Amino acid sequence: MAEQAGGPSGNVKIAEAKAPRGEGIVGEGERAVSSASASAERRGSRRVSRSSTRTEDYANLDEYGKLVKYISTFREKGDEEGEQNYEEKRVWYAPWKKRKVYRKTQEEPGKYPEDWLITDISQGLPSSEIQNRRRRSGWNELVSEKENPVAKILSYFRGPILYVMELAVLLAAGLQDWIDFGVIIGILCLNAAVGWYQEKQAADVVASLKGDIAMRANVIRDGEQQEILARELVPGDVIIVADGQVVPADSKVVCDYNDPNGFEEYKEHLQRGDLSSSSESDMEEGEGEGKEKEKEAEPKKPARKRGYPILACDHSAITGESLAVDRYMGGMIFYTTGCKRGKAYAIVQTGAKTSFVGRTASMVQSAKGAGHFEMVMDNIGTSLLILVMAWILIAWIGGFFRHLPIASPRQQTLLHYTLSLLIIGVPVGLPVVTTTTMAVGAAYLAKKKAIVQKLTAIESLAGVDILCSDKTGTLTANKLSIRDPYVAEGVDIDWLFAVAALASSHNIDSLDPIDKVTVLTLRSYPGAREILRRGWTTQKFTPFDPVSKRIVSEVSCDGVKYVCTKGAPKAVLQISNCSKETADLYKEKAQEFAHRGFRSLGVAVKREGEDWTLLGMLPMFDPPREDTAHTIHESQNLGISVKMLTGDALAIAKETCKMLALGTKVFNSDKLIHGGLSGAMAGDLVEKADGFAEVFPEHKYQVVEMLQERGHLTAMTGDGVNDAPSLKKADCGIAVEGASEAAQSAADIVFLEPGLSTIIDSIKMARQIFARMKAYIQYRIALCLHLEIYLVTSMLIINESIRVELIVFLALFADLATVAVAYDNASFELRPVEWQLPKIWFISVLLGILLALGTWVVRGSLFLPSGGIVQNWGSIQEILFLEVALTENWLIFVTRGIETWPSIHLVVAILGVDVLATIFCLFGWFSNETMPTNPATSFVETTNGWTDIVTVVRVWGYSLGVTIVIALVYFMLNKFQWLENLGRSKRDKGDVKIENLLGHLSRLTIEYDQPGKPVGRFFLAATKEEEDVE
Predict the structure, then answer these.
(1) What's residue 827's pLDDT?
(2) What are the structural domains of the chain?
(3) Nearest 5 degrees, angle CA 853-CA 859-CA 860?
(4) Which of 37, 477, 726, 810 is the most exposed place for a label (fewest CB within 10 A)?
(5) Helix/strand/coil (H/E/C) assignment for every residue in 460-478
(6) Long-range CB contact pairs, 362-368, < 8 A, 24+
(7) Would you give the distance in Å from CA 1030 to the centre of its chain?
(8) Which residues contact 763 (CB under 8 A, 6 or more apart)?
(9) Over the stretch 61-90, which tens digit does the pLDDT of each residue have?
């Protein structure tokens, strides 16, 4: 057997001897030597042949021929090695040696065998093939990576606060305090278990509702058309894509739905290599002028467009191109984009994770940053850690002055004091309780048909102060009806409605709302239906686009061709050739309809060989929802400004705002871009405006951006693919009922019920959730400071502390009592909420000091000859333990406020812990021996540590009195205006009330407005501008 290597000048032959079978060990050795020598000769011959070939090739070429040859054959250093299936690495124990490490060959993700991607569109894939392909491609969905259950559980033991508790575990083990050791571990495990269970329960509720918004796909399998979940698609599946639907996977267009024979043509072109195979080349077709200029220097094959455009897809969310992009045979359509026109067969090319959108999403997810909620929790946790370290330092300094030992079998040592401060100084339940409060809140919102995509969206929703809402379906009922039309002179009304129906989509499965109302209005016009029965055929249908602002349909009947159109009145008027009188009357009618709040559609027709004929105008009315006006009034009382963003004409937008008592400061969107306003003036315009008309997706994005630059927390509602960028940009993106898959993916919260009232109700609930978290944080900081202050001062003053075992149980009781905080009843603020950390710290520090003073009063009374409130019958340690437990547990009733009654869950949890603390006191559990104090106390404790029932009742009564005093101080503090606004970056309550009053007066002006007066109407702080009607 011979192998040849060499160039044109000659060949080098290398012979390989093949030994016969059965030669034994010697024969095998000879074969090994022969093989090794043959390999060496091959490598040498390749080097010789390459060198000689390069020299002789260049010798026969001219100057530029050599240059071209060099360009085409040049390879970077290391390229050849890259082709090898191994790499050389140094041996760790002998760095001077190298060894070969062979790479594992892996299949490139998203690449599949060619025969997988050629499926007969009439039969589709057999069911037996689905699992095999899914094993390789995975589910067709974009989901965050599933967290390892073990890693998830371990996450409840990670964090600065938890690390301190774990340090306390090690310290307890070193001091051989095994009771403390076990209880601290129990606290850590309890927090982890509660957090895991509550988050899982909330996630299950949300997941059950997410199934209602799952994307579906029409697929051909086993020769039948089926509807399945889009996540079940696999590469090679034959899907049917129609206008109005979301593309369920990156797919290649095969042929028109009404021309299944086109599959054979598709296969022929595919075999000849005429069809583009890369998604990037297809994407470049719709990326706009700017992208083309960037890439014009790059060599690329011209795009091949076979036949006529089969589909038109909206790539605005991917490329930013506002116009729909035509897709031809073999063209790629992309996951989550919207189909605007046509109906076709397509073959799935790859799964969601390796799709164009999926690759982009993976890059976005890889760049994760800490959210605002995480930063606030880190701030609080870090501050508490610094505080506890400061108290420990003070305790050690004081201990050295009191000559306390660092460690000894006794309780009064520096390490025991350190252990006590570590246990009570960091709230181990803080991260878990706050996170689970939001998780349970997400479950509450899910019951209200609001699906929270990420928990931190609850915090954003609670702080929203401006809501940018679309009009149709949110502020209005989305129930269009056509009122009495304007019919041009000499035109039959039946012919007007017939042309309007001809210029509508005929895909009855997914009719646009405007097309639907146009077609269904023909029920009242039997003559128009008779005209449609004359055998019309559609040659070409062009859906509405924002440039021409018209729908165009080319049709024929009895051999005569017509072009029918409907659209914006001004756009239709521009193409028609009518007299000035007709045009003036047409404009007058358009203005009249606009003043009445009607959206108008002009209708015109062009017969073959003739000019365009203006037929008339259809006025459509979308009434406001019954609850919208009341909801807007309620939102303004909540400190939320509602701004309407609509694509309707300016006059229609103003009339709708007046109907909703929203205000009349409505502007054309052109003022944002072409108004010639400076940055500050444009920002003022957006802030003061009640709405914008003739808005496109880029305007929505710009409005959100300007409001955010002014420091507003902005929520944006949307439903279409075009709304995805602005939903992502907003602080809280809201996908309304019926939103597209792309809008739902970009939104933070998805609503399953229509209307503005559901959004406002969710904002109230988000504020309630926020109030629960704020109350718990204030409560928990105060608890930490309470015992830190008391323990350190008691050590310094009387050389006494509460026993470590009892300190551990106090920490456990505090966590047990607040497990039910997530289920508590809560009120909501009448303005957008903020954390106001300076206010939280001020109040918490004051509450902690008051609690410490209350404990010192109990301890100080025990120095009295009468024994104070105990009267010489009980245990000092147990009495202090009970007083601390009761006052700390009841503090949550203070910080939660008095606007609502506490929930039964919270009351039962706290009373249960109180009963347990009382039993500890009665029977003297863990009281052990007496701690000697300096100065010595005259109080004589019981020998067994028990406390009588009378003393326990006195402690309960005293603790109740302390709680009442603290409650009075707390509510008095909240009356101070300076404290109310401490740490708040936005308006105070007074500003909100004044703005609400001004808004109310403005609405009254609108209600008593006389539209028949020729003079200008007067409005508070603003004059009404001329209404521009398009």
Answers:
(1) 87
(2) 2-80 (no CATH), 114-124+215-364 (2.70.150.10), 373-417+763-980 (1.20.1110.10), 449-477+623-762 (3.40.50.1000), 481-621 (3.40.1110.10)
(3) 85
(4) 37
(5) HHHCCCEEEEEHHHHHECC
(6) 365/144
(7) 37
(8) 461, 462, 464, 635, 638, 640
(9) 655 555 555 555 555 444 444 445 566 777
Q: Which SS3 state, helix, strand or coil, does residue 643 take?
A: strand
User: What secondary structure does DSSP assign to 749-813, as a single string?
Assistant: EEESS-SHHHHHHHHHHHHHHHHHHHHHHHHHHHHHHHHHHHHHHHHHHHS----HHHHHHHHHH
What is the DSSP annotation of 681-741?
A: HHHHHHHH-SEEES--HHHHHHHHHHHHHTT--EEEEE-SGGGHHHHHHSSEEEEPTT--H
pLDDT tens digits along 665-691? 888 877 766 555 666 788 888 888 889
Angle of helix 804-817 versus helix 756-798 axis, rounded to 10 = 170
pTM greater than 0.85 (yes/no): no
The pLDDT of residue 1008 is 43
DSSP conformational letter for 835: -
What are the φ and ψ backbone dihedral angles of 506, each rounded to 5 degrees? -110, 10
Instruction: Find the helix packing angle between 513-520 and 493-502, rounded to 10°.
Output: 140
Indicate if the pLDDT at residue 998 is higher than 70.
Answer: no
Residue among 470, 622, 690, 761 flagged as catalytic = 470
Query: Which of 646, 491, 553 lies closest to 1030, judged by CA?
Result: 646
| Sheet strand arrangement including 641-645 | 450-452, 749-751, 732-735, 714-718, 466-470, 641-645, 691-693, 666-668
Which residue has 């949300």 as its token pair? Answer: 206
Identity of residue 266: Y
| Residue 785: closest CA among 402, 180, 380, 184 | 380
Closest CA to 887 of 925, 861, 849: 849
Pairing of strands 238-242, 343-348: antiparallel
Give the pLDDT confidence score for residue 79 in this predicted structure.
45
To the nearest 10 degrees (0 to 180), the angle between helices 756-798 and 628-637 is: 20
Q: How far is CA 204 from CA 141, 158, 768, in A?
A: 19, 24, 22
End-to-end CA distance of the chain: 85
More confident call, 593 vs 725: 593
CA angle at residue 306 from 221 to 608, to 5 degrees? 110
Number of separate helices (H) and strands (E) present in the chain: 36, 30
CA distance 608 to 560: 7
Task: Specify the pairing of strand 466-470 against strand 714-718.
Answer: parallel
Q: Are 661 and 789 within 8 A, CB to CB? A: no
Structure tokens given for 381 = 């946790």
- How high does pLDDT run on average in the chain? 77
| Two structure tokens written together for 395 | 């305790």
pLDDT in tens, 149-183: 777 777 778 777 778 778 888 888 887 778 778 87
Rg (CA), the chain: 39
Is 470 noted as a catalytic residue in this protein?
A: yes
359: number of Cβ within 10 Å: 14
